[in-house]
Amino acid sequence: MLELIQQYWLYFLVGQYPKGPLGGLALTLILAVMGLILSMPLGLAFGLMRVSPYRWLRLPVTAFVYVVRGMPLLMVVFWAYFFLPSVTGVKTDQFWTMLIALVVFDAAYLAEIVRAGINGLPRGQMECARSLGLSYMKAMRTVILPQALRNSLPSLVNQFISTIKETSLGYIIGLAEVTFIATQINSLVFTKPAEVFGILGLTYFVLCFGLSRVAQWIEKRLERKGLGNRIAPKVAA
Amino acid sequence: MTTFDPQMLISGQYHDMLVAGLKMSLQYLFYGFWIALPLGLVIALCRLSPYKPLRAFGTGYVEVVRSIPLLAQMLFWYFGVPEMLPQGVKEALYEGPVESICAVVALGVYTAAYMAEDIRSGIRAVPSVQMEAARSLGLSYMRAMRLVILPQAFRLTVPPLISQTLNLWKGTSIATVIGAAEMMYQAGQVESQSFRSFEAFAFVSVAYLGVSLIITGIANWFQHRWPVRTM
Known about the structure:
Chain A is an all-alpha fold. Chain A has a single domain, classed as MetI-like fold. In chain A, 76% of the residues lie in helices and 0% in strands. Chain A has 10 helices and no strands. In chain A, helix 8 (153-166) runs antiparallel to helix 10 (193-224). Chain A is globular, with a radius of gyration of 21 Å. The N and C termini of chain A lie far apart (50 Å). Chain B is mainly alpha-helical. The radius of gyration of chain B is 21 Å and the shape is flat. The termini of chain B are far apart. The A-B interface holds A 66-67, 69-75, 78-79, 82-83, 86-87, 161, 164-166, 168-169, 171-172, 179, 182-183, 186, 193-198, 200-201, 204-205, 207-209, 212, 233-236 and B 1, 63-64, 66-73, 75-76, 79-81, 83-84, 124-125, 127-129, 166, 170-174, 176-177, 184, 187-188, 191, 197-198, 201, 204-205, 208-209, 212-213, 216.
């Protein structure tokens, strides 16, 4: 195992860079970070539309969320990969295809997180803000959203973790992210598949487990400050 | 852009391929579920057990499996694990449908970790006095679990378990990476043989969405029929 790491660590981390396109773990991380950042505004807008009092805003977004959440990401990736070129006439490369698919996919999930955060707040918050004379949007922006987003921070970190895991699907369309690189190494070494994929698994584990600890830490901190949204479990002593 | 040709999906060779893929995917869902549910229950009980080694095992399993993408696990089970098996077992495995077996095992093992968490939170939502009362009536730990705690946890657990089943269903699409002939793989085949991506993907999308909606419907029906009782 050590031998493998010694020989291929650079390839594993950055792919063929600087001789070729950037790949490997670096690409996985870039995709995940960009995916989350780009889908954030979209998710926020969709989340607000999901709780909007207007039916014509609510319905299309609800349909979008149901459709995207009912389909595997792989399907979204395939649609983007085969469909975007035939519609736009431009051959999109794998990176942008994957990014677009991730943004569309994450937006639906983020919308649900935002919605849950807003719905989790006591009703009185909105009523108070409105009765103070704030308009709906102003109340949303200055009263509801700051609280809702703080409460959904742990879920956002969780979503980031699943985005990292989802980037592995780039392998299917030949994007040189870390899983793809691992299969390449596997075909170079040939005799040690268990070790190669063991290292791959370990890499993901370190990343995602570390992040899930961050989510837990945030949750604890929110609870300690009395800001948490959780109702304390009623467990009799 | 070419026109949509529904004829291709209603009959003929491509129709047969896609339907065979759908059937295969549903089989993966079925077998994966029956691996994931018992395994998830065992892991959940481990995580809640009074013995530290069992707890550590349960926690380790859940954390490790949930942190690694299904795709990477699929590759591991397909390329890595058969190498480690003894010769006789390996040969027997390669005689059979090895892709399908590996895919189902990977799906089951992956989903079990998520199901374990749902079952655990369901069990934890049952007030702890229930366990104390059961124990003080003289039931053993396992008996109290089986007769008192688990039936109460069941209602709370079923809706999230159904949504995990939905994730399992979506996960079956990933089996395409190891060449298991499920729906996504067949769609790729049809696409490359007929150059008609739109029809193939439309069929597959509708199929995924249809089954997903059915599963969501079951979850809603269950919640409506047996609402969670608050104590």
